[in-house]
């Protein structure tokens, strides 16, 4: 937050007259040199308000989430970042819930772009490992953005989002290569998501205390998931 110049610094206040002394008996003081104002602080942490848009707000909110934590993203904090009043943001977003939904869509799009690039041209275990690696890399390097992807969105929002539809296509395509169909597809998606998310959450919190190498454990988890998908227990749809 940019500090403000203390009130009164750089400006002389008119002093009250001493008691019992007539104004005429006290000539005005002459200033031989002007009092200089201290240099104004540079708003390095602020984003210029000119051209404020919903997209710029959401991008700034995502950056703030990575820097300070997802739960610390508020409209007030974002307004300070742009050096505007809170009310100015409501021209572009409907409120904190709308902002968080937009953050989830932004981060989801970024994440699936990385995953798509990683899995392109790969199949089987190689595709699974590439998918998982891109997921983990994004979760660890962009913790605030990643946290935004974990909120539950309403079905209409998911349906209308090209990024989330693409996420479903790539994820289900990966699992269909193992010969899975519904309801096994949904079960397998939940298995992968809980495995990847759980590992990343524990790793980012420094909760793995054993001396075993984290990369080795991750690779073994991918091996186990691959074998599980290959040998998925088939059940009829209810």
From TrEMBL:
Gene3D superfamilies this protein is in? Homeodomain-like, Tetracycline Repressor, domain 2
Coiled-coil annotation reads none
Q: Which residues form the HTH tetR-type domain?
A: 51-111
Domain of life, per the record? Bacteria
The alphabetized UniProt keywords are: DNA-binding, Transcription, Transcription regulation
Q: Which stretches are labeled DNA-binding?
A: 74-93
Q: Which residues form the signal peptide?
A: none
- Keyword field contains DNA-binding: yes
Annotated region Disordered: the residues are 1-47
Q: Where is the composition biased (Basic residues)?
A: 1-12
Q: Which named protein is this?
A: TetR-like C-terminal domain-containing protein
The organism is Streptomyces erythrogriseus
Lineage, uppermost ranks = Bacteria, Bacillati, Actinomycetota, Actinomycetes, Kitasatosporales
């Amino acid at each position: 937050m940019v500090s403000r110049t203390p009130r009164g610094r750089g400006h002389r206040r008119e002093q009250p007259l001493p008691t019992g002394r007539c104004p005429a008996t006290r000539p005005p003081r002459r200033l031989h040199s002007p009092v200089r104002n201290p240099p104004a602080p540079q708003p390095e942490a602020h984003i210029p308000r000119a051209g404020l848009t919903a997209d710029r707000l959401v991008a700034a909110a995502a950056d703030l989430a990575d820097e300070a934590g997802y739960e610390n993203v508020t409209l007030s904090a974002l307004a300070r970042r742009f050096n505007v009043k809170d009310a100015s943001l409501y021209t572009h977003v409907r409120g904190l819930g709308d902002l968080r939904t937009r953050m989830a869509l932004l981060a989801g799009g970024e994440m699936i772009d990385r995953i798509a690039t990683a899995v392109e041209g790969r199949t089987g275990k190689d595709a699974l490992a590439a998918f998982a690696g891109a997921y983990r890399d994004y979760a660890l390097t962009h913790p605030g953005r990643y946290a935004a992807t974990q909120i539950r969105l309403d079905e209409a929002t998911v349906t209308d989002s090209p990024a989330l539809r693409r996420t479903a296509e790539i994820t289900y395509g990966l699992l269909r290569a193992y010969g899975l169909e519904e309801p096994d597809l949904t079960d397998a998606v939940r298995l992968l998501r809980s495995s990847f998310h759980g590992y990343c959450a524990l790793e980012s919190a420094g909760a793995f205390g054993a001396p075993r190498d984290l990369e080795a454990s991750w690779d073994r988890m991918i091996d186990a998931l691959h074998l599980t998908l290959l040998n998925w227990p088939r059940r009829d749809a209810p």
